[in-house]
Amino acid sequence: MLVYTNIKTRLRSFFIEIGELSYFTLRFLKEVFKAPIEFKEIIRQCFYMGNRSLLLVGITGFIIGLVLTLQTRPTLMEFGAVSWMPSMVGISIVREIGPIITALVCAGRIGSGIGAELGSMRVTEQIDAMEVSGTNPFKYLVVTRVLAVTLMLPLLVIIGDAVALFGSFLVESVKGNVSFTLFFNQVFSSLEFGDIIPATIKSFFFGFAIGIVGCFKGYYCSKGTVGVGIAANSAVVFTSLLLFIIDFIAVFVTDIFYDL
Fold it and tell me: Where are the strands (E) in the chain, listed by range?
């Protein structure tokens, strides 16, 4: 009976949080089109989030390219298909691995940062002070950060894909004596707009999910300074789950259009 009650309470809290997040998202969609638009703050947040995440995304992408090629090469050699390595790696990284891994890295780096930053502002009553002074904190703090993450994540995905492909080329250059021109000619000849466009579109949704969840967790942070850590941690966990759901929906919808 106690286990049933615990599960019931957790499910109730989960659905309540989903409803609050949905209302928070609708409020963002309402506020984003209202004047004034904080261009300077949006640019500042774009620089802050993109610049701070660039090195981490680059290192992660480079290692992914190395590991993917090193793990896949022996299997392709058994079937005499090692010449397909550039095409296979290019399609895998551009379609799926690059966007989702970059999004997960940014969820840990950006999502937790937003949750902690807004959470600390909430518990120190800075957000309340902005409301009392007549400033719209939602417009200045939430809208600008969500837009910044939404705009910057596709750029970070492109950079991560490029670095991952370069890492794959280094392995192929050492193991198979493949030239730079030959490797990337095979990569680009195997890619189509049907591979690039869906991956780019879903990157915008990934960025939006990271920004909206991080802001939601931080904006409604409670329980004092302990709540700041909880907000940062739950932002990463909730965002990671949401990213996989969005990725599944994107792949499912893309598959439907391919069948048509």
Answer: none
Residue from 192, 151, 125, 158 nearest 57 by CA: 158
pLDDT at 142 over 80: yes
CA distance 40 to 42: 5
- Type of residue at 104: L
**Per-residue pLDDT tens over the stretch 33-77:** 887 888 899 999 999 888 888 999 999 999 999 999 998 888 888
| Contacts of 252-258 spanning 24+ positions with Cβ under 8 A | 254/194, 254/198, 258/194
Among 4-8, 89-93, 244-248, which is the least confidently predicted range? 4-8
Q: 26-62 b/e with 16+ CB inside 10 Å = b?
A: eebeeeeeeeeebeebbeebbeebbeebeebbbebbb
Exposure of 147 by Cβ count < 10 A (0-12 exposed, 13-18 middle, 19+ buried)?
Answer: buried
> Phi first, then psi: what are they for 78, rounded to 5°?
-65, -30
- Return the structure tokens found at 3: 């286990």
Per-residue burial over 100-114, b = 16 or more CB atoms within 10 Å of its CB, e = otherwise: bbbbbbbbbbbbbbb
Give the H/E segment covering residue 71. helix 39-78
Measured distance CA(245)–CA(213) in Å, rounded = 14
Closest CA to 220 of 12, 15, 10, 17: 17
Provide the 8-state DSSP code for 36. P
Name the phi and psi angles at 135, rounded to 5.
-85, 145
Instruction: Give the percent of the chain with pLDDT over 70.
Output: 97
Using only the alpha carbons of the chain, give its radius of gyration: 21
